[in-house]
Recover the amino acids of this structure.
């Protein structure tokens, strides 16, 4: 006798296929959320840091001094905002004064630029005022200004997100 084997078709049940498909969709949505919310991560981390720092003063104001909950939160947020923005303001004012002093002495600046142009022309045979170099300088300057503005706006957005999250974390 030849032993005959039955060939059984192995198949995956429909409910398992749907479960795996559902898990893949959930993982894909998680990936999309994570990549899009990654830009707000510094704001979240800032809110957590501020929450840890302000929790004890909040409890002191709210429970021991019997202040209103919302008033306590707003006062602490304002004080912390001034504590963060105050030194930044002083730093910007100090740096801008130094830059203004440098820019007021235009003759020294133009003399130094002319000397640098002359050195580039004599030693390296580079003509700074060719059309290509002027376009390149304008492009680099435009990119630098754009990067500076983007970083400034991004910083304000992150601080705003941090304080928005902080308010809801504390209330």
């Amino acid at each position: 006798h030849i032993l005959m084997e039955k060939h059984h078709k192995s198949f995956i049940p429909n409910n398992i296929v749907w479960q795996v498909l559902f898990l893949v969709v959930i993982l894909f949505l998680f990936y999309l959320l994570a990549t899009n919310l990654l830009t707000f991560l510094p704001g979240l981390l800032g809110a957590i840091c501020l929450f840890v720092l302000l929790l004890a003063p909040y409890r002191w104001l709210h429970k021991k001094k019997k202040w209103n909950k919302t008033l306590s939160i707003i006062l602490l947020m304002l004080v912390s905002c001034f504590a963060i923005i105050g030194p930044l303001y002083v730093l910007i004012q100090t740096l801008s004064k130094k830059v203004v002093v440098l820019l007021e002495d235009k003759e020294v600046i133009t003399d130094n630029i002319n000397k640098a142009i002359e050195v580039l022309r004599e030693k390296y045979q580079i003509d700074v005022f060719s059309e290509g170099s002027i376009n390149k300088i304008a492009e680099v300057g435009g990119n630098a200004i754009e990067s500076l503005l983007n970083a400034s706006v991004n910083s304000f957005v992150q601080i705003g997100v941090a304080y928005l999250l902080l308010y809801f974390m504390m209330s």
Summary: The chain has a mean pLDDT of 88. The first helix runs from residue 14 to 37. The two ends are 82 Å apart (CA to CA). The CA atoms of residues 42 and 60 lie 28 Å apart.
